[in-house]
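Crash report, auto-generated. Payload:
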Amino acid sequence: EIVLTQSPGTLSLSPGESAALSCRASQSVRSNFLAWYQQKPGQAPRLLIYGASSRATGIPDRFSGSGSGTDFTLTISRLEPEDFAVYYCQQYGSSPFTFGPGTKVDIK
Amino acid sequence: EVQLVESGGGLVQPGRSLRLSCAASGFSFDDYAMHWVRRAPGKGLEWVSGISWNSGYIMYASSVKGRFTISRDNAENSLYLEMNSLRAEDTALYYCARGRGYFDSFDSWGQGTLVTVSS
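Recovered output after restart:
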């Protein structure tokens, strides 16, 4: 089973700042099948990035994904008020699929 | 519009069973893999089980293997999760989610159904 580690656990930032969220895998993720999701309180998760770097439909271009192998990053440039949420990475290259523990981005 | 609506959650005693359902609409259900993902109180997301479009490929998380059974009825556009021998640690909000292929990200999610295992 691939274990995903996310850092930091919490990121306190102000609107307009940029955020860099890290996701590290315990072994290489097949074909970079790595996704990022956003979840707000009381809402279902929303797909942001798939294939490590491809934006999902309707996702603003301030969200970008990068990385390969075992190290991946989600970058949010110019944080908007609606971006304060919990972000999860997920690998779907091998079963069982696994999620990271999440990074909470909150308002400073 | 893609819609996934879960149902069947509730309060159940340890050791008992429960069956969750997910009704899909707004897309060709039999073109997609489907998954169950849960979130326990105060915890993160945990993938539970997945099933390919034709039920030919089914996998489970180790935490539920042997106790949970995933199935689908493409004629009814429905996904199911039969949960047996429930434990307190199965208490969670259960989401169904859609994947374009089995090994693919989850591009649509339901709002979830709450399962509470307690005596």
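Post-recovery validation: The first strand of chain B starts at residue 3 and ends at 7.
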